[in-house]
Amino acid sequence: MSVINEGDIVARKSYSRDLFFKVLSVFRGDDGKVYANLKGLDIRLYASALWMIWKN
Predict the structure, then answer these.
(1) Which domain holds residue 27?
(2) Residues 6 or more apart from 11 whose CB is under 8 A from it?
(3) Is 3 among the domain residues?
(4) What's the domain count of the chain?
(5) What confidence tens digit (pLDDT) does each residue in 6-52 have?
(6) From the CB of residue 12, how many other CB atoms can be counted at a distance below 10 Å?
């Protein structure tokens, strides 16, 4: 599994990498899971995602 860091560029693997995001922050939620705040690079979009989505 790859390590995702702040400043990395990531894409939606499930949609053939159609959208790209910059990782703004990586943090541990109250539930103990690791999340990332993402900012869309192609369109104006802001999202939070579970870190697990980047598993290969």
Answers:
(1) 9-54
(2) 17, 18, 19, 20, 21
(3) no
(4) 1
(5) 999 998 888 888 888 999 999 999 999 999 998 888 777 666 767 65
(6) 14
Q: What distance lies between CA 20 and its chain's CA centroid?
A: 9
Does residue 2 form part of some domain?
no
Q: How many CB atoms lie within 10 A of CB 23?
A: 19
Within-domain flag for 36? yes
Q: Which two tokens stand for residue 50?
A: 């579970």
Place 56 in a pLDDT band, splitting at 50, 70 and 90. Answer: very low
The predicted structure's pLDDT at residue 17? 85
Q: State the DSSP string of the chain.
A: -PPP-TT-EEE-GGGTT-SEEEEEEEEE-TTS-EEEEEEESSSS-EEEEEGGGG--
